[in-house]
Design a protein that fits this description.
Number of strands: 9
Structural class: mainly beta
Number of helices: 0
Low-confidence stretches: none
Helix content: under 10%
Oligomer: single chain
CATH class of one domain: Mainly Beta
């Protein structure tokens, strides 16, 4: 189990060797506790340079966010692969970076339509992406055991 704390996942853990420094043996002898951390949604990444195209997806939100350390450009494609929208380069080391579109629009006109997203990773790592109705980037996804900034086990805006 983990707790979300700011931009990190925090995993408390414990382990035992079963042997004390004196040589005594027992189930909980020689125990230690620790705290491991991981970048939020940092379980896997696409590392650049490279390109990734999703399967056709439908979404309800109009704002695309990425978790990235580096630089990525995004295209929205129709099912045939025609480019419908291109983004500006999103760069930095952020777990919640809003993608801005070259035409200044959002994805509202594509809600409920099957589209593909193509990510052009020029350098660094792309860890996650999500589309949300919330312009502040809450994903609606589960957050393990929660955390101090959550009212429950989901990433939702206050009062949702």
């Amino acid at each position: 189990m983990f707790v979300v704390l700011d931009d990190q996942l925090v995993f408390p853990y414990m382990g035992t060797s079963g042997i004390a420094p004196s040589g005594h043996r027992g189930m909980y002898t020689g125990g230690s506790i620790g705290l491991a951390t991981l970048r939020r949604d940092g379980f896997a990444s696409m590392d650049g340079p490279g390109e990734l195209t999703t399967r056709p997806v439908k979404f309800k939100g109009k704002h695309l966010f990425v978790n990235v350390n580096g630089a990525v450009k995004v295209e929205v494609l129709d099912e045939a692969g025609k480019v419908l929208r291109s983004s500006k380069v999103a760069s930095g080391d952020q777990t919640k970076l809003k993608v801005e579109w070259n035409d200044g629009a959002d994805l509202g006109d594509l809600i409920g339509k099957a589209v593909k997203l193509r990510f052009h990773q020029t350098k660094g790592s792309l860890y996650a992406f999500w589309v949300t109705p919330d312009e502040n980037g809450t994903s609606g996804g589960y957050v393990g055991a929660g955390g101090p900034d959550f009212g429950g086990v989901r990433d939702q805006p206050p009062g949702f």
